[in-house]
Amino acid sequence: MKKVVKFLPVIAAVLGLVAVISLFLPAIVLESGDKFPGFTTVFGYDKNVSGMKIPMLGFSFMNLLTYVLVIVGIVVAVLTYLGKGGKFMTWIAVACLLVAGIFFFCVRAFATVEYEPLKAVWSLGFGAILAGICSILGALSLATSKLLNK
Using CA atoms, how far apart are residues 108 and 123, in angstroms rounded to an integer? Predict the structure, then answer.
């Protein structure tokens, strides 16, 4: 049992890495079938129509913060595995991954919509759901390692 508990921070880091990779998976899906990856929900997207640029999504700080929290959680989880940091480092990583996991399910609400008709016809995509689940599982993995490692 001790061997499994020792590697739980590594499992949390891998789950966090999957969440970061979801940046390239669809985070928002339109009824028409168009998909916006996490990258476009963070940094925005302009569509070219007849030579004109129509802004669809704008920059979203909250969506950027979501990915930053996951990266901080990964770094702290790795530091925890290596034995660096203090007593509360694990809990900081748990908080970062847990908040990021919740934020992934709020991608639609955090997206800055420049083109108003988009608001009514979109839903949460596979990438955001996968990232949210992986982040929350990573947080639970770290919390379990901390609680069982006493």
Answer: 7
pLDDT score of 85 more than 80: no
Host domain of residue 101:
2-148
Tally helices (H) and strands (E) across the chain: 6, 6
CATH classification of the domain holding 91: 1.20.140
Instruction: Note if the pTM is more than 0.85.
Output: yes
Question: Please, are residues 18 and 126 in contact by the beta-carbon 8 Å criterion?
Answer: no
The predicted structure's pLDDT at residue 119: 66
Residue 116: count other Cβ atoms within 10 Å of its Cβ. 7
Using CA atoms, how far apart are residues 33 and 26, in angstroms rounded to an integer? 11
In the beta sheet, which residues pair with residue 30?
Answer: 122
Alpha helices in 1-125 (DSSP H): 2-21, 38-43, 61-81, 89-104, 107-110
pLDDT above 70 as % of the chain: 95
Per-residue burial over 120-130, b if 16 or more Cβ lie within 10 Å, else e, is: eebebbebbbb
Q: Mean pLDDT over residues 32-60, rounded?
A: 84
